[in-house]
Amino acid sequence: QVHLEESGGGLAQAGGSLKLSCSASGSGFRTLRMGWYRQTPGHQRELVADISVFGSTNYADSVEGRFTISRDNAKNTVYLEMSSLKPEDTAVYYCKAQQRVLSSINDYWGQGTQVTVSA
């Protein structure tokens, strides 16, 4: 079982920056693929960025070059640094941990943190 807790959301102006953090409880953080997703009302949750256990990263086209995902295995934490924010980045941001156990995949989600970008 993995418990995730996000922090760092809030209000920012267009062009500004925010940094989200997601702390994971439980052992085995190093074995988890971690990701950030976002969701707006009436839309499906979408991938923003994820990072593999080896540190390989993947970004949505809409955030490429503006957002950076990173992980600190010693702190059981994954980060999302967001810069050059746009009003369309406004969403609830969720942290996800993906755990692979033999042939099974378990996904765990945080409760979400609101990010609001004003024009």
Explain this structure.
It contains no helices and eleven strands. It is mostly beta strands. The protein starts with a strand and ends with a strand. The strands form two sheets. Strands 2, 4, 5, 6, 9, 10 and 11 form a seven-stranded mixed beta sheet that branches. Strands 1-3-8-7 form a four-stranded antiparallel beta sheet, with no helix packed on it. Helix content is 0%, strand content 57%. The protein is globular, with a radius of gyration of 14 Å. The model has no long low-confidence stretch (mean pLDDT 96).
Indicate the topology.
Elements: E1 3-7, E2 10-13, E3 18-25, E4 33-39, E5 46-51, E6 57-59, E7 67-72, E8 77-82, E9 91-101, E10 104-109, E11 113-118
Parallel strand pairs: 2-11
Antiparallel strand pairs: 1-3, 3-8, 4-5, 4-9, 5-6, 7-8, 9-10, 9-11
Radius of gyration: 14 Å
Number of strands: 11
How would you sum up the major sheet? 7 strands, mixed
Structural class label: mainly beta
Q: Could you tell me how far the N terminus lies from the C terminus, measured between alpha carbons in angstroms?
A: 40 Å
Q: What is the string of helix and strand elements? A: EEEEEEEEEEE
State the helix count.
0
> What is the 3D shape?
globular
Q: Determine the strand fraction and express it as a percent band.
A: over 45%
Residue share in helix: under 10%
- The average pLDDT score comes to 96
Low-confidence stretches: none
